[in-house]
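Box 3.1. Reading complex inputs
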Amino acid sequence: MDVGRSGVKAETGTVRLLALPVLARLPEDPEWRERGRLDRVVRTNGIAYLESWCLGYNAEDWLVGEHVETLGLPGQYVMTVTKADPSTRLLILAALSALGANDRAEVCVGLPLHQFEREGQAMRSLLHGEHKLRVAGQQHALTLLGVVVPEGLGLWVRAVTPQGELPDGALVRQPTVVLDFGHRTIQVGVFSGLRLYPRPYVSAHGAYEIWEAALVEALEGPGQTVYESPQRAAMLARLLREEQILVRGQQVTLDLLRPQLRAQAERIWPRVREEIRRTLEQIPYERVVAGGGGVHLFGELLREFFGEGLVVLEDRFAQAEGYRLFLEHRSFFRSVA
Amino acid sequence: MSDDGGVRKARHHLVLPVEVWEALTLEARQRRKRISHVVQERLVASLGILGGSTLPSEGAADLMMAEAGKRHHCRLAVERRIWNRLAYEAATRKVSVTERIRQRLREAVLGEAVGTGWGPHGELAAGVRESRAPESGGEPKSITMLEL
C-alpha cells in the first residue's frame, strides 16, 4: 500500500486500486446519504479507481475519494509530509475494504524517510490489531498484519526484482540510490541490502508544485491559485486518468501542459540536482533507481546527470508493487541481507 | 490585535534577509505578481495548509516587510486562519510572529529546515519542508521494520 498525496495505490498481485486521498465526514443529514451511490469503483485499463467509498469507523461515517468534491462535501486533503495520522489509517482501511478485505489483511505501508523512527512507531500503533468497520451496511472486524517500512523500500524491492517475480540476490547487495519523486516530496535514500545510509534527503518541494503551477496557469493565467486544494487534486486526478479535463468550459489536455511541466521541472532542477549531489557525497553507490509519480517530469534531466545506467520505474504502482513483493519475499531479503 | 484575535489594525515590521528578499522579488518579477502574492503563496505552502486559497480575506494580518538596510517594503495580507496558525507556532516556540514568518520564508526560499510541530488538523502530525543530508555519508544501518 503506497499512500501518496496524489493517490493511494494498492496492489495485491492481481488487482490495482487507486484512490484520491480526499476524505470527508459524511453528515448525519439523510439528504447527503441519498445522493446516489456512495460506493463507486470504476475499472479502467486494469486499474480499479475508487471514485468514492463509504467507511464507518469509530462511530463516524467517512467518504473517501474524488466524489467528495463532486458532492460538495468539505473535504480534507492532507498535505503534510508526515503521514502517521488517523487520516492515513482511514485511507488504508478504505482501500483494504474496497479490495474486499473483511476479517484479515497483510499490508506493507511506507512512511517518509524523515523522522521515520518516530513516525513509524506512531503509524504502527494506529494500524496494529483489530479495526471495527462498517462497509455497505455490514459490520466487519478487520485485523491488520504486516509491516511499516521507510518509503523508497518499495521502489528498491521492485528494482531488485526485474521480472517482478523473484528478487535478484546480486542486485540486493548492491548499494543503490533510490530517488522517489512523489507528489509532496522528493526523497533520496541509499539502500544496501536491508540497510539504509543515515539521514537521507527529503524535500517537500514535490511534483505537486510543478503540476499545480502548470494546471493553474493553464486555467487561470500565471500565478493564480483560486481553486481550493481538494479541487486542484480532483482536477489533477481526472486529468491524469482521462488526459483531458473541462473546467468552466475550458479544456485542458495533458499535451497542452507538457511544455509548462517541462519548464517548471527545469526551473527547480538545479536545486534538486545540488541536493542529490550533496546527499551522495562519499557514498559508494553502484546503482541508481528513480521512481514515483513525478519521475517522468525529471526523467531526461536525471539521465543527463546519472547517465544511461539509471533505472527509471515509470509505473505509478511500482512502489506499491515493491511493498507487496517485500511481504512475499521477506524471508529471502532477510537471508540475503 | 483586535478583540476577536485577528490582527486587522496591527502592523508588524518584518525585516527579511537580503537573499530571501531578492529571491522573492525575483520570483514576483518573473511571474509578474506582487511580492505580497508570492509571499502569501510561500507561507501557505510552507505551512502545508493547502485546502485553502491564498486569497486574503477580511480581517487579515497587515504586515510591513523590508529588506535589511534598504527601504523596499510591501504590505502583506494573509488569511486570518493562516495568521492564527503562525501565531500558534510562534507561541509554542516562544518567538514573535514576525520571527516565525521570517523562519518560514527562509525555509521556503532557502530550504532551511525549521521544523513545524503542528498539523492542519490539530491531532495530526505536522510536516516539514526539508531534511538535509549530513556532509558525509556514514555507515549504513539496518532498516527499521515495524511489525504490526
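In summary: The radius of gyration of chain A is 20 Å.
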